[in-house]
Design a protein that fits this description.
single chain; 80 residues; mainly alpha; 3 helices; 57% helix; elongated
């Protein structure tokens, strides 16, 4: 919807934000499915979705996702 320029209805935004808030992992990230461990891909994707849904960058969900991505980046940079 965002890419095509279609306005996302306010009610949908509310429910999408609620869904993401209810399914965030304890570490601040998201997995590829509801019970999945946090991944860089899913967390980055959902962070972008939060911002498209007008969630401010200092909102706890967005802050937690950014912090988790930074930690995951440090972990992966040591492995590679």
């Amino acid at each position: 919807m965002y890419i095509t320029g279609y306005k996302i209805p306010t009610e949908w935004k509310i429910e999408m934000k609620r869904y993401l808030a209810n399914h965030v992992n304890a570490d601040g990230g998201w997995g590829m499915h509801l019970e999945g461990t946090t991944t860089v891909f899913a967390t980055a994707l959902y962070y972008v979705v939060l911002r498209i849904l007008d969630v401010e960058k200092d909102h706890p969900l967005a802050t937690g996702a950014r912090e988790r991505l930074l930690k995951l980046g440090k972990i992966y940079s040591k492995v590679c």
